[in-house]
Structure to design on (651 residues):
């Protein structure tokens, strides 16, 4: 059977204390909803869970006679998965599990094995792995006899299977950098009958927070990867790398026509010079061959334009834009189709040893977000303006748009054009990557309310069939985030796996794990933010295009009373966990750190917005508190462009 979950994206907010902090109407008007091809509704992906109890035991009387069995030639993710299974199982039960190779193990129905990966007795056990269904990350968990098999079609999927087994049997869940749940002191653990097939709604889920970057174990437990694990960097760069392919310092003097008139982008028509365009395609193709000979494994590579709002305005590019309904992207498709066909021709000949199902990705971003398509209202569908702008089988789109409003989903009015563009691209490309956003890049230390919209945006996106989602938060902040960033990262990881996940239940579990006995007060603080944020979006203008860059340090957004009430919640939470300082100092330190991390945001806003309205002694006390909290957490960034030292120097 398929698991079906429902939820209300807007949580129940029942805190009287907010009435004083949030002036104005307490109920915002309903958002105007677009009549898209369907409204937001459950996606119902492949998440099949058949689980039943058996009379057998994994652990009985504190004893476990199971072993972990790996393929004799296990891959890196399989080895890592086995180590995580052994470690976390031991932490929960006190039982040590031996790890053996399948060449040392004899399987029968009475054998007691945790079989991890594609062991050599899968067929004997009658277990099949549908690679087309499971893809990169999907997995099966199957009980056969007394053994439990955990495997994916790829090694990464096997690792995900192990984490899910631990979740189902021992309550394992990683919530943040320092908070997890795991049943402990387990002396009796029954064997369950498992017949589980779970395929993530997005095959690749790329981390969006810097704190996941430097910790491989944490990233794996979130079932997230870095983009560099999936796509091949070009001279160290994956995003905005077009000048890495044709460096200006190498080519511009001899070929100025390869660059836009303002020099800030490539010109994908070579200013209409067909011979020069042929040479341009050749040089990119030759560089790609060199890269593919050095990297034989990864199947994705990017040619993504520079991070500006400009585009080439030469006569040839202008004519192409007009021909394709205002879509600058047409010239990029045509250029990369030629590169792709040249590379595939090489694969079929001299480059056969390096052949793979290569996808060359380009950005649908800013000036190229619009696809060269026509819309048919009768069928509510899109099609290419002509066949030349259909993406070659080796060309794919990386859809991103910072001009959106990520306080709202793609089903709502503010994002109508971007939503239509994304649907259009799904008609042109077989493969798509999706890049969304969930932080204010100008003010990392202030909260950004993507929590209402996140699930519906993911549900919208998954229906356009992207294989990858990258939800970008404070990507270059390596320390634990403030302003509910840890919650954002956790929910994003869960929704990227299953867009129908119960966000309300996940949020409740997060607060319990993250804050312990301080959870109730911290939830009150969070709910205050959510109520105020919804008011800000409806009445104060914290919404609209590029809301991820809005000036958040405005009194109209965050009243002094609200921020002070939030600090009262923090104080209540600290008092609630205080007894643990002696009784359970390890957990006390975790909860204290997590509570203090969230205190940074309101204290920062008080010192920045209300510096001239606070008494000197009060302001100084807040500044001392802010400095101490920033140093404890190790915060490194004020915003995307500025290090935290700029703020510390002012405190």
């Amino acid at each position: 059977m398929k698991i079906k979950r429902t939820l209300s994206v807007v949580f129940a907010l029942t805190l009287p204390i907010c009435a004083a902090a949030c002036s104005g109407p307490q109920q915002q008007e309903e958002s105007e909803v677009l009549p898209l091809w369907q409204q937001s509704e459950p996606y119902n992906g492949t998440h099949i869970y058949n689980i039943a109890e058996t009379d057998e035991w994994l652990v009985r009387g504190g004893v476990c006679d199971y072993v972990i069995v790996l393929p004799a030639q296990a891959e890196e993710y399989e080895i890592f998965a086995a180590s995580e299974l052994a470690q976390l199982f031991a932490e929960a039960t006190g039982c040590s599990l031996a790890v053996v190779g399948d060449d040392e193990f004899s399987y029968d129905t009475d054998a007691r094995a945790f079989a991890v990966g594609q062991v050599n007795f899968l067929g004997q056990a009658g277990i099949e792995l549908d690679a087309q269904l499971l893809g990169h990350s999907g997995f099966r968990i199957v009980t056969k006899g007394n053994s439990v098999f955990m495997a994916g079609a790829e090694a990464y999927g096997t690792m995900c299977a192990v984490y899910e087994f631990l979740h189902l049997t021992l309550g394992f869940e990683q919530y943040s950098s320092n908070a997890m749940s795991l049943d402990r002191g387990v002396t009796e653990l029954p064997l369950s009958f498992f017949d589980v097939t779970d395929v993530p709604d997005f095959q690749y889920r790329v981390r969006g927070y810097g704190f996941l970057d430097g910790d491989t174990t944490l990233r794996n437990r979130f079932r997230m990867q870095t983009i560099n694990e999936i796509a091949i960097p070009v001279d160290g760069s994956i995003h905005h790398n077009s000048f890495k392919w044709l460096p200006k310092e190498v080519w511009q003097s001899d070929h100025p026509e390869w660059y836009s008139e303002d020099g800030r982008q490539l010109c994908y028509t070579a200013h209409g010079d067909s011979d020069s365009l042929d040479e341009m395609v050749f040089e990119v193709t030759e560089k790609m061959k060199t890269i593919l000979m050095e990297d034989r494994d990864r199947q994705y590579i990017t040619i993504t334009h520079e991070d500006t709002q400009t585009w080439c305005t030469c006569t040839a590019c202008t004519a192409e834009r007009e021909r394709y309904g205002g879509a600058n992207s047409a010239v990029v498709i045509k250029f990369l189709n030629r590169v792709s066909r040249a590379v595939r021709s090489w694969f079929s000949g001299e480059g056969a040893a390096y052949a793979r199902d290569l996808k060359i990705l380009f950005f649908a971003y800013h000036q190229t977000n619009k696809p060269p398509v026509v819309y048919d209202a009768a069928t509510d569908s899109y099609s290419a303006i002509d066949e030349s702008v259909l993406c070659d089988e080796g060309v794919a789109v990386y859809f991103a748009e910072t001009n959106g409003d990520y306080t709202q989903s793609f089903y709502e009015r503010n994002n109508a054009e971007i939503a239509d563009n994304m649907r259009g691209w799904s008609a042109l490309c077989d493969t798509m990557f999706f890049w969304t956003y969930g932080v204010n890049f100008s003010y990392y230390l202030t909260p950004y309310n993507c929590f209402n919209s996140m699930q519906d945006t993911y549900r919208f996106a998954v229906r356009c069939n992207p294989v990858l989602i990258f939800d970008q938060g404070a990507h270059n902040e390596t320390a634990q985030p403030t302003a509910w960033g840890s919650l954002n990262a956790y929910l994003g990881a869960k929704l990227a796996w299953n867009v129908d996940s119960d966000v309300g239940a996940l949020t409740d579990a997060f607060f319990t794990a993250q804050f312990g006995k301080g959870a109730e007060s911290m939830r009150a603080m969070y709910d205050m933010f959510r109520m105020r944020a919804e008011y800000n979006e409806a009445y104060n203008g914290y919404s609209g295009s590029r809301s991820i860059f809005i000036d958040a340090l405005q009194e109209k957004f965050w009243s002094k009373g609200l921020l002070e009430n939030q600090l009262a919640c923090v104080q209540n939470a600290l008092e609630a966990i205080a007894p643990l300082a002696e009784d359970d100092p390890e957990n006390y330190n975790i909860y204290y750190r997590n509570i203090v991390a969230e205190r940074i945001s309101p204290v920062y806003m008080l010192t920045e917005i209300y510096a001239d309205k606070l008494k000197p002694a009060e302001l100084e006390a807040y500044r001392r508190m802010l400095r101490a909290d920033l140093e404890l957490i190790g915060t490194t960034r004020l915003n995307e462009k500025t290090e935290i030292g700029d703020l510390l120097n002012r405190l």
